[in-house]
Amino acid sequence: MRIGKNPAKGTALPTHGRHRIIVPIYIPNLEGYFEHALTVMTLCLESLWLTTNGRAAITVISNGSAPSVVAALQRLSENGRLDQLVLNDTNRGKVDAALCAARGSFEPFITFSDADVLFRPGWLDAVESLFRTFPETGVASPFTMPPLAWIHTSATLLSATARLELARQKVVADASIDQLERSLGHPNYVPSALRESQLVVKRAGAIACVGATHIVSTMRRELIQSLPQAPSLTAVAGSSEKRWIDEPSDRCGFWRLSTPRFWAAHMGNTPEPWMAEEVTAMAEGMSVSDVLAESPVLPTVVRSWTRAVPLSMRRRLAQQLQRASVQRVLLGRGRGTASVPLSPLV
Q: Which H, E and C letters describe the chain, residue by residue?
């Protein structure tokens, strides 16, 4: 039996904002690999709130995390740090959890982020500037990983080449590359040739690096419906992230770009003093909601003409571009056209 009228019936609700950030979290315990995971997660979410407060909605999904982690997330939610907190009793996997939330979101821009990313003031504007300057962009990251310039970027490479906007230039600071390699635990992740110069696109005085990382990337909502509908059923794996997050944008003819400056940092699973120092400085030095104005309306997405070219053909053409790029680097070093292993092009 129902008595009375639901007071919420017929109530108009505010419109959705422009950005939603989705952070899946899996911290089953605080031992071994996960010993410092709670500290890293806290730094990530605090930096995210400080740099987006009032401009983006934050969704956190806990995949069967330890009780202490769930308690910490609930405190953040109660303190207004989160817009949504989803608590899964079991691990539903990074990709499946993130895409479930994305498909239920209405914001035009959706950012997927790992829980070990430290965000810096200005990252949201820097990412938006890529979509504004290059409306062909479907995915954009707030920092670059140079080896990804040839990964799932055939639409970017061919379209930018046709527009005479593709170039090689030194735009990423060596210190940023050093920090990236240290965080990945991979001291030789960026080959010397990619340290010397990066693959970039140029337009109207702006420069962006080719490629984007699934560690943290912002996606236009138009892409969500193009992602595979079947579940990944994988806890976490590069193959699932590539198939469900990375490849669809290139297949659909969208560009994949990243900022030359590191507006965010990958922390890994071990906190370092500078991380807490940056977050403390953010908290003490600014109120994001007070100093950041809403950016102008972004242009409608422009899907590259390369979508009409079969993906297999695009990849072969991009492979030829890669060979030519490597040969130019070798010639610049006076090494002729000696054979050099190419990055895997997919």
A: CCCCCCCCCCCCCCCCCCEEEEEEECCCCCCHHHCCHHHHHHHHHHHHHHHHCCCEEEEEEEECCCHHHHHHHHHHHHCCCCCEEEEECCCCCHHHHHHHHHHCCCCCEEEEECCCEEECCCHHHHHHHHHHHCCCEEEEECCCCHHHHHCCCHHHHHHHHHCCCEEEECCCCHHHHHHHHHHHCCCCCCCHHHHHCEEEEEECCEEEEECCCCCEEEEEHHHHHHCCCCCCCCCCCHHHHHHHHHHHHHHCCCEEEECCCCCEEECCCCCCHHHHHHHHHHHHHCCHHHHCCCCCCCCCCCCCHHHHCCHHHHHHHHHHHHHHHHHHHHHHCCCCCCCCCCCCCC
Q: Give pLDDT tens digits for 13-55.
A: 777 889 999 999 999 999 999 999 999 999 999 999 999 978 8
Question: How much is the CA Rg of the chain, to the nearest whole Å?
Answer: 21
Residues in the chain, how many? Answer: 346
CB 325 within 8 A of CB 168: yes
Cβ contact 22:47 at 8 Å: no
Q: How many other C-beta atoms can be found within 10 angstroms of the C-beta atom of residue 95? A: 25
What backbone phi and psi angles, to 5 degrees, belong to 47? Answer: -65, -35
pLDDT in tens, 105-161: 999 999 999 999 999 999 999 999 999 999 999 999 999 999 999 999 999 999 999
Q: Is 319 exposed, middle or buried (0-12, 13-18, 19+ CB in 10 A)?
A: middle
Give me the sign of the Cα torsion angle 265, 267, 273, 275.
positive
CB 157 within 8 A of CB 166: yes
Reading the block at residue 90, the tokens are 């079991």
CA-to-CA distance for 60 and 86, rounded, in angstroms? 6
- CATH code that applies to domain 19-285: 3.90.550.10
